[in-house]
């Protein structure tokens, strides 16, 4: 992992000597290895724009450790992600570069990267490389539609697998909407994507008479905005957030595994008269989404 260590000026001079003839015409990185309590790789960077030299120390995986090399390497890479050294969306070094940098086999590098991809920290993009996974963060105490939350966070949005159909409602959904069981409602399902990757799968139940408008506009617009366009006010909402496993259906929609975790949100939205106008069941990929709430402490007696 990245760490701070002390080394003398001769170490720096040795790194500069390995770089060859010193040049100020382009950026370069030199690499040397030193041993104190642990074995470190020292990276010496030259920035042509600022005309400055910087150093970085990286712990090398050790054969004497009780942990396998790929576990040590994974911990080192994860530390760079969580510390912000590799920010969201940044491409990480190639397999060959990591092999050289950490003095391990390509098999070790591939296993470490595979584990971080499976855990949602990294994402592979065909023909481009491996990148730090972007995680969408939303923070609000106001009532927004699920798509509106992403718009507030300035996230690029696309919609896949959009469906809108009229179905007889189940007893459970009927009780939530306070209508008669088997009464017809409009069922809408869609996958919302950011950066071309599925973020959440949405199933919503709405008044039947919205079918025409939602069939023509529901693939591009917030359902709340479509409700308001029909003169239905959005006044309040009550939601429950739980942790769950994706399961087969949601895994297919979200392009993840059935045993991957999801953040499951159920919400009932009411109009100004307190009548339920929508029930939504939304599943977010846990590796791509985080919801933050700011709390203030109230004085207690």
**Main sheet record:** 6 strands, antiparallel
Please state the CA-atom Rg, rounded to the nearest Å: 26 Å
CATH C-level name of the largest domain: Alpha Beta
Helix amount = 25-40%
- Describe the global form: elongated
Q: What separation lies between the terminal Cα atoms? A: 48 Å
Q: Might you state the CATH topology name of the largest domain?
A: Chorismate lyase
CATH architecture descriptor name of the largest domain: 3-Layer(aba) Sandwich
The H-level CATH homologous superfamily of the largest domain, spelled out, is Chorismate lyase-like
Quickly count the helices.
Answer: 9
Indicate the structural class. Answer: alpha+beta
The strand line-up of the biggest sheet is: 8-9-10-13-12-11
Give the uncertain stretches in residue-range form. 1-10
Strand content: 35-45%
Compute the number of structural domains.
Answer: 2
Mean pLDDT: 77
DSSP strand count: 14
Domain HTH gntR-type: 67-135
GO biological process, one term: negative regulation of DNA-templated transcription
Organism: Ferroacidibacillus organovorans
Protein name: HTH gntR-type domain-containing protein
Task: Walk me through what this model shows.
With 301 residues, the chain is α+β, with helices and mostly antiparallel strands. The protein contains 9 helices and 14 strands. It has a 6-stranded antiparallel beta sheet with strand order 8-9-10-13-12-11, sandwiched between helices. It has a 4-stranded antiparallel beta sheet with strand order 1-4-3-2. The two termini are 48 Å apart. The relative contact order is 0.10. The model is unreliable at 1-10 (pLDDT under 50).
């Amino acid at each position: 992992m990245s760490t701070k260590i002390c080394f003398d000026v001769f170490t720096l001079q040795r790194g500069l000597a390995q770089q060859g003839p010193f040049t100020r015409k382009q950026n370069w990185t030199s690499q040397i290895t030193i041993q104190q309590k642990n074995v470190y790789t020292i990276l010496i960077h030259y920035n042509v724009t600022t005309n400055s030299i910087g150093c970085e120390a990286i712990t090398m995986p050790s054969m004497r450790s009780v942990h396998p090399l790929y576990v040590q390497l994974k911990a080192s890479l994860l530390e760079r992600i969580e510390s912000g050294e590799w920010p969201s969306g940044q491409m990480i070094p190639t397999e060959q570069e990591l092999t050289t940098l950490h003095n391990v086999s390509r098999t070790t590098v591939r296993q470490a990267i595979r584990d971080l991809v499976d855990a949602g920290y990294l994402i592979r993009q065909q023909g481009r490389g491996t990148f730090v996974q972007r995680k969408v963060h939303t923070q609000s105490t106001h009532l927004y539609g699920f798509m509106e939350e992403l718009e507030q966070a300035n996230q690029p949005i696309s919609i896949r697998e959009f469906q809108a159909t009229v179905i007889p409602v189940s007893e459970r959904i009927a009780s939530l909407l306070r209508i008669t069981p088997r009464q017809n409602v409009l069922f809408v399902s869609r996958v919302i994507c950011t950066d071309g990757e599925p973020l959440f799968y949405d199933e919503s139940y709405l008044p039947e008479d919205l079918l025409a408008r939602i069939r023509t506009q529901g693939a591009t617009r917030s359902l709340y905005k479509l409700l308001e366009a029909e003169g239905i006010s959005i006044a309040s909402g009550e939601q429950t957030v739980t942790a769950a496993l994706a399961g087969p259906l949601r895994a297919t929609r979200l392009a993840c595994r059935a045993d991957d975790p999801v953040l499951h949100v159920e919400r009932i939205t009411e109009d100004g008269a307190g009548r339920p106008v929508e029930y939504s069941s939304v599943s977010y990929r846990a590796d791509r989404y985080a919801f933050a709430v700011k709390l203030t402490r109230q004085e207690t007696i």
